[in-house]
């Protein structure tokens, strides 16, 4: 037995040929099953390059692609009591919050920011469905109120991107109280004569749909987004009838007068520029003069580095 060729050489080769392959290099499209390379998917704003299915996108990546040159400033949100009801199911509520914070890298389910879109200053708020299903708790209520107050103070339009499974059960009645609180905040923006634009993304359900998500001066939705109060399965079980095809999807709601537009994510920035400049009585933007949006994939790469 030649121990140099049979043992030493293979050992050396294995050390130099070993490659660390990250597990998240590929994402499977839930609609068509295509395997998508993570950089290609990020460059396409988390939209499947094969079937155009709109996947979830984080608020930070969305804002990077939305604001001019990807630059925005976060708006501070007052922090509520962490666990007012001392709620516990299989885990304590604070443990669930810590797990969600670790998984998303965000403090809570809504991010509020200010910046310019097509050289027009705006305030924007976006929900993160990855954070406890984007559920509306006291922090989300505080975030929307902070966004509304900032918009009124600076006399800027307010744009909200909704994505939620409804109210946060761990906060009980305190979560439901955010519905009237956020409704009053929206009315404050409207009383100031400022545009309030809502972009409904998949999914927007429950108490969020029943409050600030359906109060926009302009209602826009991403393609095939589920928008409802109670889900289709619950309705079918209640009325014991088969629902129409596409029921409660964005295109169905557009056909029945519940929405103004259904817009592809890659066209959304240009459409918002046109709308906010029109509602703010500003002249149309000159296409070649507009600053470019940021690149979500490059921002993510810089953050990792």
Shape: globular
| Major sheet: arrangement of strands | 3-4-5-6-7-8-9
CATH architectural type of the largest domain? Alpha-Beta Complex
* Cα-atom radius of gyration: 22 Å
Write down the CATH topology of the largest domain.
2-enoyl-CoA Hydratase, Chain A, domain 1
Strand fraction equals: 15-25%
Unreliable residue stretches: 297-305
Number of domains: 2
Distance between the termini: 47 Å
Work out the helix count: 12
**Global mean pLDDT:** 90
CATH class of the largest domain: Alpha Beta
Helix content: 25-40%
Number of strands: 9
Explain what the structure shows.
- By secondary structure, this protein is α/β, with parallel strands linked by helices.
- The protein has two domains: 23-55, no CATH class; 56-304, Alpha-Beta Complex (2-enoyl-CoA Hydratase, Chain A, domain 1), CATH 3.90.226.
- Helix content is 39%, strand content 15%.
- The chain has helices at residues 3-17, 38-43, 59-66, 93-104, 138-154, 172-176, 178-191, 206-209, 232-239, 250-255, 265-279, 296-304, and strands at 26-28, 35-37, 72-74, 110-117, 120-127, 158-164, 196-204, 218-221, 261-262.
- The strands form two sheets. The chain has a seven-stranded mixed beta sheet with strand order 3-4-5-6-7-8-9, sandwiched between helices.
- Strand 4 and strand 5 (120-127) form a beta hairpin.
- The longest helix is centred in the middle third of the chain and has 17 residues, at 138-154.
- It is globular.
- 38% of the residues are buried.
- Residues 297-305 have low confidence and may be disordered.
């Amino acid at each position: 037995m030649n121990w140099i060729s049979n043992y030493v050489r293979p050992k050396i080769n294995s050390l130099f040929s070993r490659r660390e392959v990250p597990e998240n290099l590929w994402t499977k499209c839930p609609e068509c099953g295509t395997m998508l390379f993570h950089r290609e998917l990020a460059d396409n704003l988390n939209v499947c390059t094969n079937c155009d299915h709109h996947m979830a996108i984080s608020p930070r990546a969305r804002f990077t692609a939305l604001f001019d040159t990807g630059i925005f400033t976060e708006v501070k949100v007052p922090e509520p009591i962490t666990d007012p009801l001392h709620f516990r199911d299989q885990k304590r509520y604070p443990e669930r919050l810590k797990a969600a914070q670790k998984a998303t890298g965000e403090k809570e389910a809504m991010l509020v920011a200010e910046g310019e879109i097509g050289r027009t200053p705006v305030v924007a708020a976006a929900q993160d469905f990855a954070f406890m299903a984007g559920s509306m708790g006291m922090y989300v209520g505080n975030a929307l109120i902070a966004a509304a107050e900032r918009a009124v103070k600076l006399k800027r339009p307010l744009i909200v991107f909704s994505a939620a499974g409804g109210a946060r059960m761990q906060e009980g009645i305190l979560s439901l109280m955010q519905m009237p609180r956020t409704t009053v905040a929206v009315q404050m923006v409207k009383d100031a004569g400022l545009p309030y634009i809502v972009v409904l993304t998949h999914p927007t359900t429950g108490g969020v749909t029943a409050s600030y998500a359906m109060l926009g001066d302009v209602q826009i939705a991403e393609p095939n987004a589920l928008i409802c109060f109670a889900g289709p399965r619950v309705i079918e079980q209640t009325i014991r009838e088969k629902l129409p095809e596409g029921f409660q999807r964005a295109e169905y709601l557009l056909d029945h007068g519940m929405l103004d537009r259904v817009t592809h994510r890659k066209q959304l920035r240009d459409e918002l520029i046109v709308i906010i400049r029109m509602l703010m009585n500003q002249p149309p933007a000159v296409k070649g003069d507009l600053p470019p949006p940021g690149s979500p994939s490059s921002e993510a790469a810089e953050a990792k580095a």
